[in-house]
Amino acid sequence: MSGGTPTGGGLMRQRHSFGYASSGDDLEDDACSKPPLLSSSIPRARTWFEVVENALWIASAAFIIYFGDRHSNLVYILWHDTRIKRTPLYLGLVGFLLNGTYFFYTFISTWGVRKYNEKWDVVGDSALRFVSLGLISFTLFTIALWPIWSFLTVPLVFTLLMASMVVSPYLIIGPFRPQVAVLRTD
């Protein structure tokens, strides 16, 4: 047997205990009696740098939407400009909506997850779908809008994407709180 601590007569096996380093208490005896630690419900305060960064993303997206191509705004361009390639635009919109729907479904399915290893396999499997569908939608939007803004299309679409990521947490209508199951024994 190897891997132990050398003693006078040979090797002695050690138990690897992370919680009780100096006492003789056993981890298995006390593991079930402790309540699980819940994350605090107090949100972390944002720094001024994060607030300024979010404000810049939103302001730049509002600038893009309002000024468009300097002649008309972005909404008018998307509806009436003939230079836009319509098929990639519509496929990009469908991909964006599917990505949003899939994100909402994953959010609801992992809503009550508290433990580290409980249901996180749902999130791990869906991460590749989020990324691939998002990249496909980004590419399709870039192809659709390239005839109007040429090389400026990539930063324009990226700015609109980042602004939507900044605004999306505030679009939830009501707070989602998982119901805590309280078992009574009276």
Tell me what the structure shows:
This protein has 6 helices and 2 strands; from the N terminus they run ββαααααα. With 186 residues, the chain is mainly alpha-helical. Strands 1-2 form a two-stranded antiparallel ribbon. Helix 2 (48-67) crosses helix 6 and helix 5 packs across helix 6 (153-167). It is elongated and about 85 Å long. The mean pLDDT is 76.
- What percent of the residues sit in helical stretches (DSSP H or I)? 40-55%
How many strand units?
2
| Biggest sheet, spatial arrangement of strands | 1-2
Give the overall shape: elongated
Low-confidence stretches: none
Count up the helices.
6
Main β-sheet description: 2 strands, antiparallel
Classify the secondary structure makeup into a structural class.
mainly alpha
Distance between the termini: 52 Å
Primary descriptors:
186 residues, mainly alpha, two-stranded antiparallel ribbon, 6 helices, 2 strands, 2% strand, elongated
Quick synopsis:
By secondary structure, this protein is mainly alpha-helical. 53% of the residues lie in helices and 2% in strands.
List the helices and strands and how they pair.
Elements: E1 5-6, E2 11-12, H1 27-30, H2 48-67, H3 74-80, H4 86-109, H5 121-149, H6 153-167
Antiparallel strand pairs: 1-2
Helix pairs in contact: 2-6, 4-5, 5-6
